[in-house]
Design brief:
single chain, Protein Yjbj, Chain: A, 5 helices, 89 residues, elongated, mainly alpha
C-alpha cells in the first residue's frame, strides 16, 4: 500500500478503525488512540515507542492491519449488496 493510500484509508475510516487499534496493539492507551485521530505518522510513532520496533516495522504492521480491515470491509459490503439483491427478487 502506498503511503498516500495508507494515509487516506486510515484517515477516512478512523472511526471504524480506532476500536481495532487497541485490539491490534494492546499497549496503546485510550489516550494514545484519541491523540492519533487517524494520523498515520503518529500511529507509527506510538507503535515504535510502545513496542520498541523500528519505524519501518511499525509501518509494515499498520499496512497489513489496514489491508485486513479493507478486505473485511469490502466483503461486508459485497454481502450486504447480495442480501439486498436477494430481497428485491
Amino acid at each position: 500500500m502506498k503511503d498516500s493510500s495508507l494515509h487516506d484509508t486510515i484517515q477516512g475510516n478512523w472511526k471504524q478503525l480506532s476500536g481495532g487499534v487497541r485490539h491490534e496493539w494492546g499497549k496503546l492507551t485510550h489516550n494514545d488512540v484519541e491523540q492519533i485521530k487517524g494520523d498515520v505518522e503518529m500511529l507509527v510513532g506510538k507503535i515504535e515507542e510502545r513496542y520498541g520496533v523500528t519505524r519501518a516495522e511499525a509501518r509494515k504492521q499498520i499496512e497489513l492491519w489496514a489491508a485486513r480491515f479493507l478486505a473485511h470491509h469490502i466483503e461486508q459490503k459485497r454481502g450486504q449488496a447480495e442480501q439486498s439483491q436477494a430481497a428485491e427478487s
